[in-house]
Every structure is written in structure tokens, then in C-alpha cells.
Structure to design on (590 residues):
């Protein structure tokens, strides 16, 4: 056999885990030897050296997508090398968002392209919607295509659906979970919303956690309000981190038990400033081993930025700037074992960095990712990468609803406590009428199978008092939600949603109030974030005018089916009591 060393390396699949072949590495070292030239040298800049925990003055040599040297020297050979003088500029690593739900109306590409213009260029992302919207064998290949992007995409492997699916055992098979955990782009298992099942003896779930740990993957918990013993038990089972702290005491308990703690600042939990203040009161000596996340917020939340917004909050709360930057770069990279590749400015790392005018202002003037300019001198650069969306199954509704489907006789309804919490209540009004009175805040609520096979009908209290109909294919499972006062408006909203291929449609008294088309599986928009932000702001405004008294309708619609929250949920299996883990009223076939 005439196998080359490159052939042998290819068989070993090393190049799938490390982006540079042997020949590339020789090219890189030739630049240090002075026999080849770098593509770019950033000179005379202050840059953050994370290993030394200080700002350094020096030069950064870049060849293609890699930093081949960072220090005080200049290259011996610079034939064709571009030199950029950065006196009075500051360079930090590209920001990392460690906990992304890339389907809150936006999609993985639209969110990341928007975030990158503010310096967030690495994303560790939820795979739940890929599992639910793609054919089983297409979800993993769909994820893998993002490796071709100039941005950095990593993924989770979900172990549960955070709802009650009719076919959960078909979605989360042992083979499917292990195939995701085997992929180098998958960095963690979780988030583990089904931790109560783990605690109560679900050995299949426990085996998956152990498989993740055997593969050196992290395991992200979902432990809001957990006691010290629960946190300890989850740590024993293999959970390595958690992002659900709501107080400084919560963070402290996680750190005491050896869990990594990610501080959250999101559209439904904007807690970061409070958490920092409370941790300071508890005399926490250093923040740079903590991480931060926006936890998949609604689109308009990101008008103020992504990780740059969180870094600024931390600095404003008195966190030393280097520590604040580490919370969004180096700490994340170390935790996920990526620091050999990114999260710091040093020899051998990916050329992913942000150029700032002031170290206390984390919004960059220029952004580079994998050696490509994403933004240069405040001008956003056009990117070539475009994913193939054909693996996302379109919402193809070839069936209709009529008044016979809209039969509401359930004795138990759902009462909204806040954006996402619903409690049971006894229905006392006559729900057999075609239109409910607008003198109260009770509305019809229906969950319909996206294929038209089953339904569950009840009432919801507290959503709105003056809305005829809302139809939404955006939900935790991609099934259809109908909410409103008028059965005819519900039918009109459903028909329009069907016509546009999925989305959120609001109607009232025969008029269309607003719509957000969601062309990708009926769950995600194909529009840029800037467009989607305005659409979501109008959705909130219209709903507020109709009596919606909360501030995040996107999460209200998403979490009506999510069983990781109390107390009552409407799911594919029926109306579900989360505390009792019981289906109170099952779905019925249409």
C-alpha cells in the first residue's frame, strides 16, 4: 500500500476534530521560521492576554483563519502581508454565547449573523427544534453544514423534549442520542429539563448522562429553585453546570457543590445586575470563572446587544473589565475545553477577535471570525455562507378546521400567573357559545396536531380580554395554538396562518391585526433579525392593546406546552399536571 501520512490521519478522522491538516501546520510554522509570510499583522495594539490576566502591547500575526503568533516581535518575511496599525485600540477575543435557543422566531443563521456584528461570533446551540422539525436522519447532517460558516457553531444534544410528546421514545432513541454525542461539534448533553425523572430512577436517562461524560462532554442542568441536596444529587449523577440561578444564593449553592454557574440575563429573567450585586455582598472574590447567557431571548431583547450587552452590565456593576470579558470568552472556552482553539488571543488559536475603541465599551468597531472580517471599521461585511434549509420540513397543512372542531366543554382551564406560569382554575362560564364576552379575560384555547390528527380544547384565563383570534404554529413542539374570544376569528386566523405556510396571525372581528410569517417549519422566520425585531415589537403592542398584560408573548406561546414549568400545561398527550405528572384530560382524535 502507498498510503501517505495524510491518508492515515484522514482514516483516524483527526481532521474532523482539529481544523488543520499536517500540511497546514507546516505552513503555519514556516511563518515563524521566516520562510513564509502571514496574511495580516495587527500591530501596536493592546490585546487581552488571558493566560497572564492582563493587557499586553504587541503584534498579532494572522494566516488564513489562525493566529500564528501573538507577542512583541514582527515577522521576518512580509511579502504581500497587510499591516493594520491599531495604536490606541484594544483587542479582545470574540464573544461566546454558551446557551443559545436559536428558534425564538429567529433561526440559527439570522440570530448569529446579527449577533456577530456586535462581537458575538461563537454559539453553543440547542438542537431541540432540529430533532422535532427534521426527519430523524437529516437533523445531524443539517447541523454539520454550519461548520462551513465563518462563524463558530457548536451544539447541544438534548436528552428530553421538555414536554409530553406522543412519540418521545421515537425522537429520543438510544442510537440517535449517541450519534449526536459522538459528533465533535456537540459539546454538551442537555439542558436537562427532565432532571426529576433522573432523580426518580430513569436509568436510560442516567446512562445517557454517563455516555456524555465518557465522551468528555459537559452536562447542563435545569435546576430552578433546587435545594442544596438536589444540586448535590445532580452533581453525583453527572451534571456539570447550570444556568437557572435566580439569586446570588442560588449561584453560591451551585459553586459550593462544584457546578459551573452561568449567570442569566434574558427577556424573561433579566437578572444579571442583581446576581452580581448579591454575589459581591457574599464576598465572591473573582467573577472570571463564571459565565453569562441571554438564554434564547425574544428578538426585541437583542436591540441592546447580545454578549456585549452582558459584558457592559457586568462592567457597570463594578466587575473588573478583564473578568467581565472572560465571563463571555475565556471562562466559556475553558469550561467547554475549547481554549486550545478559541476564547483567548494567543498563538495557535482561531483568528476570532474584536477590536474596541475603549476597553470599557464592549461594542466592537471591527469583528473578525476565523480570519474573515465580519465588520470592519463599523461597516458590516457581506458573508457568503447560506445553509440549505431543505431539511427543515415545511408546515404543509392540507386540512381544515370548522366550528365542529371548536367544542369547549372542559371543566378545568389554565390561569396565567405571569408570562410563562399557568395554574389550573375551574371554568364556570358557558363556553358553548360562538363568542365569549369581552367583559372578562377568559378565552378559548386549543392545541392542534400540526398534521391535523388530534386536538385538546380548554379555556385560558389572563391571556387577553379583547382579542378575537390568534393562530400560532410557533410552539414548543411546532403544533398549532389557537387562542381568542371568537370561534370565527379563530378559524380566520388559522386559515391565514395556513395560507402563509405557518406563523403567528392575529384577527379580530373579521380584520387581520398583525402577522409574522414563519416560513421555516412554521417555527422560524427566514427574515433578518432587524425585520423580525420590528414584527415582534408590533406583536407585543397589538396584544397589549387587546388586554395582554405581560411583556413576552413569544415565551408565553412557546411555554404553554413546556412541562419543565409549573403547574398546568397543554401538551400532545393532553392537559398535563406537572406536579402530579399526570394527564388530567387526554387529547382526542379529530
Amino acid at each position: 500500500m502507498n498510503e501517505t501520512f495524510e491518508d492515515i490521519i484522514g482514516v483516524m478522522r483527526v481532521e474532523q476534530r482539529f481544523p488543520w491538516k499536517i500540511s497546514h501546520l507546516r505552513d503555519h510554522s514556516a511563518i515563524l521560521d521566516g520562510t513564509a509570510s502571514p496574511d495580516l499583522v495587527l500591530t501596536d495594539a493592546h490585546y487581552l492576554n488571558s493566560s497572564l490576566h492582563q493587557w499586553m502591547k504587541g503584534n498579532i500575526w494572522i494566516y488564513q483563519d489562525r493566529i500564528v503568533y501573538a507577542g512583541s516581535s514582527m515577522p521576518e518575511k512580509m511579502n504581500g502581508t497587510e499591516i493594520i496599525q491599531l495604536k490606541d485600540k484594544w483587542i479582545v477575543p470574540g464573544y461566546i454565547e454558551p446557551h443559545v435557543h436559536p428558534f425564538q422566531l429567529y433561526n440559527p443563521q439570522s440570530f448569529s449573523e446579527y449577533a456577530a456584528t456586535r462581537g458575538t461570533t461563537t454559539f453553543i446551540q440547542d438542537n431541540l427544534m432540529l430533532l422535532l422539525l427534521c426527519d430523524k436522519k437529516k437533523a445531524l447532517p443539517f447541523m454539520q453544514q454550519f461548520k462551513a460558516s465563518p462563524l463558530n457553531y457548536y451544539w447541544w444534544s438534548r436528552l428530553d423534549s421538555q414536554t409530553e410528546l406522543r412519540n418521545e421514545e421515537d425522537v429520543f432513541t438510544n442510537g440517535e442520542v449517541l450519534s449526536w454525542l459522538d459528533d465533535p461539534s456537540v459539546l454538551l448533553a442537555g439542558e436537562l429539563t427532565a432532571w426529576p425523572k433522573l432523580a426518580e430512577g430513569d436509568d436510560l436517562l442516567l446512562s445517557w448522562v454517563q455516555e456524555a461524560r465518557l465522551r468528555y462532554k459537559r452536562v447542563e442542568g435545569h435546576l430552578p429553585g433546587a435545594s442544596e441536596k438536589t444540586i448535590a444529587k445532580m452533581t453525583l449523577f453527572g451534571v456539570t453546570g447550570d444556568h437557572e440561578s435566580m439569586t446570588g444564593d442560588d449561584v453560591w449553592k451551585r459553586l459550593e457543590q462544584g457546578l459551573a454557574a452561568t449567570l442569566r440575563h434574558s427577556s424573561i429573567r433579566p437578572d444579571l445586575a442583581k446576581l452580581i450585586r448579591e454575589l459581591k455582598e457574599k464576598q465572591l472574590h473573582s467573577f472570571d470563572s463564571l459565565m453569562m447567557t441571554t438564554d434564547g431571548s425574544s428578538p426585541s431583547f437583542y436591540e441592546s446587544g447580545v454578549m456585549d450587552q452582558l459584558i457592559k452590565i457586568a462592567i457597570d456593576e463594578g466587575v473588573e473589565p478583564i473578568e467581565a470579558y472572560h465571563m463571555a470568552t475565556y471562562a466559556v472556552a475553558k469550561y467547554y475545553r475549547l481554549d486550545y482553539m478559541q476564547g483567548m488571543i494567543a498563538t495557535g488559536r482561531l483568528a476570532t477577535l474584536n477590536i474596541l475603541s475603549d476597553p470599557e465599551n464592549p461594542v466592537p468597531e471591527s469583528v473578525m471570525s476565523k480570519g474573515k472580517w465580519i465588520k470592519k471599521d463599523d461597516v458590516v461585511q457581506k458573508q457568503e455562507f447560506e445553509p440549505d434549509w431543505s431539511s427543515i420540513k415545511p408546515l404543509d397543512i392540507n386540512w381544515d378546521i370548522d366550528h365542529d372542531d371548536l367544542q369547549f366543554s372542559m371543566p378545568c382551564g389554565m390561569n396565567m400567573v405571569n408570562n410563562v406560569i399557568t395554574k389550573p382554575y375551574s371554568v364556570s362560564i358557558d363556553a358553548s357559545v360562538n363568542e365569549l364576552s369581552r367583559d372578562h379575560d377568559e378565552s378559548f384555547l386549543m392545541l392542534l396536531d400540526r398534521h391535523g390528527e388530534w386536538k385538546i380544547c380548554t379555556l385560558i384565563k389572563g391571556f387577553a380580554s379583547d382579542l378575537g383570534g390568534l393562530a400560532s404554529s410557533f410552539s414548543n413542539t411546532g403544533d398549532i395554538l389557537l387562542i381568542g374570544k371568537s370561534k370565527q376569528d379563530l378559524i380566520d386566523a388559522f386559515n391565514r396562518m395556513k395560507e402563509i405556510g405557518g406563523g403567528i396571525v392575529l384577527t379580530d372581528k373579521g380584520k387581520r391585526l398583525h402577522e409574522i410569517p414563519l416560513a421555516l417549519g412554521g417555527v422560524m422566520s427566514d427574515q433578518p433579525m432587524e425585520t423580525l425585531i420590528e414584527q415582534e415589537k408590533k406583536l407585543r403592542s397589538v396584544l397589549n392593546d387587546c388586554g395582554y398584560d405581560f411583556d413576552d408573548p413569544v415565551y408565553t406561546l412557546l411555554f404553554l406546552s413546556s412541562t419543565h414549568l409549573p403547574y398546568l400545561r397543554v401538551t400532545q398527550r393532553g392537559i398535563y399536571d406537572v406536579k402530579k405528572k399526570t394527564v388530567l384530560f387526554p387529547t382526542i382524535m379529530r
About this structure: The CA atoms of residues 574 and 586 lie 4 Å apart. Residues 95-340 form a domain with the TIM Barrel fold (CATH 3.20.20.140). Residues 1-16 have pLDDT under 50 and may be disordered. The longest strand covers residues 40-49.
